[in-house]
## 1
Amino acid sequence: MQIPRRIFIGLAGAALLGHRASAGDKVVGGTLGGQAPLWPFYIAANKGFFAGEDLDVEINFAQSGAAVTQQLTGGSFDVALSVGITDPIHAIDKGAALAIIRFVGSTGPYVLIGKPELKSIADLKGKTVSIGAPNDVTTNYFEKMATANGLKRGDYDTLSAGVAAARYAALRAGVADAAIVLPPLNFQAAAAGYSILGYAADYVKNMPFTGMAVRKDWAQSHLSQVKRLLAATDKSMAWLADDNHRGEAIDLLVNVGRSSKADAESSYDFLRRINYFEPSSNLSRSKLQNLIDSERELGNVGSSLTVDRLVMPGLGALTD
């Protein structure tokens, strides 16, 4: 499978960002393309956290979480730096020798938007809501939001539209009354006069959204590199969590992540509001079980999948 775009971060990337480069241990990473969700990795490069761990990290962008996971499984990547966490879970359930080693996005950043005349989620009774697909994570998030507001299945219709941009397009075209989207579409929708009906993070707790995963054979033979990668990521998360760094973080996303200034500012405030980025490399057993239960409810994984199959001893401390 062709890798559409790649950048070099770490010691090589640090040179591009104004830091001196020198030889370091190479790590070939893959991730979804994106801006704000990759903030910690832009920071790790620019602030020298990868370099400080003697790492030379190459990042390859793929078009979907499934593509990232497929290339990780096939050996094109050593690590998936940030991927929708259900993608490696599905692969592991099917027998792939992968392991989740860190949560990256600790909560779903979905936002439910609707036509201007709608003022609350309860107003969706008798309306059509644009979701991703009946068995994907958007269904799980939306149904929890609807239930908390007194709606049950049958009180509304759903329209499967695929990716967030298509869901927003369905709303704009008038074929849906509401849509569940991701930043920065919610900022654009609000600017265009659409209503913000609710934030998934206010309703769905203890359900990680993105994670870092490795191929077990590579990780076993490169334990030092993996642990240093986790250490650099922890430092980057801590730096981003400091509100004193807001201006610098926004400038970094604009200059390196190619975000607009307005989207970078809105993304920073929004992601900080919902505590999106996971500060620690510890892995919660209960959160992993919540993910398994959710995916099993949607029919995406089998009955034999356990938390222990998702992790690798010695990488990411497993807590309650």
## 2
Amino acid sequence: MTPAARLQAAIEIVDEVIASARDDGPPADAIVTRYFKQRRYAGSGDRRAVRELVFRAVRRSAAVPDGGRSAILGLANDQPELLDLFGEPRGPEPVIDGEAEMPASLIPEWLVPELSPLVGEAERPALLERAPLDLRVNAARADRDALLAQFAGGEPTQLSPWGIRLPADTRVDDHPAFREGLVEVQDEGSQLIALACEPATGERILDLCAGAGGKALALAGAAPAAVILATDSNRARLAKLPPRAERAGARIETRLLNPPHELANLSDWAAAADCVLVDAPCSGSGTWRRNPEGRWRLTPDRLDRVVALQAHLLDLAAEFVRPGGRLVYAVCSLLSREGAGQINSFLSRRSSWTMQETGLAAGRSDGSGRLLTPGHDGTDGFFVARLNRPC
């Protein structure tokens, strides 16, 4: 592909990303992959170059662009050499005087007041920087120091005792350690959520919003003899956990929930869990460096709905914690309503519950929990809090 053809391909892909964000379709990564599966003539250099253009254009704009052309024209403001490619054969149409171009911005204006006060202006550019690839070593079967030498460019993470950090875009799915279940791809911040649960041998642990099971696997690696139940209402996501657990040699039971009948679905766990983890659905604002188009998907109405769901899940989770047990709440969000505000509301409804320290040295105190941010901690953004049910 010529440079002009690469630029035209980027415009077409950004058009698809915009449509997908509006229709709640697949993420940008999946769209790029699908685009090139249909165009086998594109070489690896073409794919890398186009992907880089796409994600630079997406990261550059907090608001939804009018179209891919507008987004790429905005990018050309920062890279004037791109303007020379407009009008070239197989490239975009020539630029018209006065044609609209997308201005640069980091955060949607309506979301700025929602941010935690800890996320000041100096920290905000880090929310859109490219993220490294973090691995979690399966502590039940492997030693991090022994595995480090197997990964070129790998370094131990500073906050998680299980983590290995690799350069962005490193491929590990064909690595022997991955195939043998000795490592899993997991951001260091996500690893710290499992660490905050302090799983112990013989405990009964309920992962209420397990999804594909990343944190359940981390819990099993830290406490192989714990009884772990991973649940979710999304059948497709939960179905990914059993093969992952088999590869890791982890004993994790799964159970599909049927809202609004969760209490009946989990009647055998009523007031019986030593620890309940609620890794709740959220805005995803802590993962914008991996999914920058997430800013385009979020609306005030969607945020209101997810905040209401989080409150429901917290109240639901409280029913499964045994007297004296603990509830760990986490969201990959930097918004106060989803973090500190959510815990304050919970404690106002259940005044006998008390806060516990998370045991994490990472992050900063944010209300009744701790906030991890890309700029301060080098992790995805997470809020985490731990609560204790009275005896």
## 3
Amino acid sequence: MMRLPLFEFRAPQTVAEAVRILDGEGPQALPLAGGTDLLPNMKRRQQVPRTLMSLQRLQELHHLEFRDSGSRLGACVTLSEIAAERRFRDGMTALAQAASFVATPQIRNMATLGGNLCLDTRCNYYDQNYEWRKSIGFCLKKDGDICWVAPGSAKCMAVSSTDTAPALMALGARVRLVSRSGEREVPLSELYQNDGIRYITRQPGELLTEVLLDSFDGWKSTYWKLRRRGSFDFPVLSVAAAARLSDQGIVVDARIVVGSVACLPLVATEASRSLVGRPLDQESIAQAAALGARIAKPLDNTDFDMSWRKRVTAEFVTYALRELRGDDLRGERLLLTRHSSSL
């Protein structure tokens, strides 16, 4: 049986109290929301904080606010709440889909939006128990000095496996980070960087408190996820797409984000731009799909063959854009879920 290491437990009741704790403890303190990723990591000794700081008593982080000008989503809103919320439809459908595809209902009842956005990067050589990792001399991400995915690399190649980040990046989301010295608001795309260890720009003394979204009137969005099993598994490829169409069906604006093929979600800027001013027809979709697949550079550190995952990226971009066009792809989603184990 894997047991948790010893730690000090703190349960602040306000954000101000929480950031004082983070400021005093530094990197040795970690926020605890649902704990669905952090606690298993601690059992495997991947993360060994001296202090766990629960966020459950911070009522400021549990809000869902919808206004004509936009939405505010508290960091401790659960993924189940997001998946069930009917106001996450049409323009924000991608977020509801991404939340609903995470793990199992029991885990979604505990897992939070903020926790999924700050999800630790994953790798076949890292996500093992302590004894397994010790047998290979550990890895660059934890306790070792070699990235076994790319032994000649000085950088860790662990993969971003968050579901909600690509969806929210396609929606142009921003996040609020609060520290004892103040607060800052940054685009979600700037929260991540291409490094498996230093994958997030949030500082140890900062707390992610909420996600901010502008109005999505006139937009449509969707999220597609590849995994071996139809439930529970982390993504090994994901595509989020959002578009605003004119009354004539011409793309006015578009965003495509490819997830789980690098240390951070990748914004497919060229693919998105290629759609603007054009209808979502076969030609424009095929061009955008090819451009979206071009930026995907998966490595051999997750499930499925890496070259196949790169090729299938174009197919997933195609699915997403066809759905935005209005095609009924419920059958394709069902088949993908049922037969993913045979891929």
## 4
Amino acid sequence: MNLVSDTVGWLLDPTNWGGNQGILTRLLEHAAFSGISLGIALAIAIPAGIWIGHTGRFIGFAANLANLGRALPSLAVIGLVLPITAAIDPQLGFKVYPTLVAMVVLAIPPILVNTQAGVAGVDRDLVEAARAMGMTDRQIVRRAELPLAIAPILAGLRSAAVQVVATATLGAFFGGGGLGRFLVEGIAQQDDGMTFGGVVLVALLSLSVEAAFVVLQRLIRSPGLARMDVRSAATSTA
């Protein structure tokens, strides 16, 4: 019970929430770091997944690349990247960039695979009908394939986001910020309240991200609306 009471006491202590090293500051650092990593992964994986799914090219290569990304442990990626980034920038190259690269590598596979599968899984008859009505490939992707593939794309993004939030704690072991600092400092100071308080905060943030995506997935437009969009687009191009 001492561990539980220490953790609750640390979390409820107002002095732990303010200041440059308080919970709110670390939470914002963690969220910002995770958001940047996810944004970079999105910028790479979404266009690639759309192109592969739409054209049907390099599907096997993309699947193998995604499996490789899943198989690589984040610490191994950090270890591989750290000597290079540290040589380029002794400060951020040690504290920030290696963990950032590791999180991007972690986030790309689920987004890429789900985007490709979602676009490729759109009814081909619908796609051919849209093409026969005079829609360009770009119009087909924007007005037919993407609306119908949004559910699997969001599922991939949801998986990537939760993994990134959890993995961002590793950055603290290399001097970075975020909620992982409470784990590192708690262990160093033998402060169980701080250590497990940090664990609870990371878990709560991960669950909050998961819940947000669950709500978002329920609010997305239905496939029927995408079909209506295709018909309306075809009418406008006729």
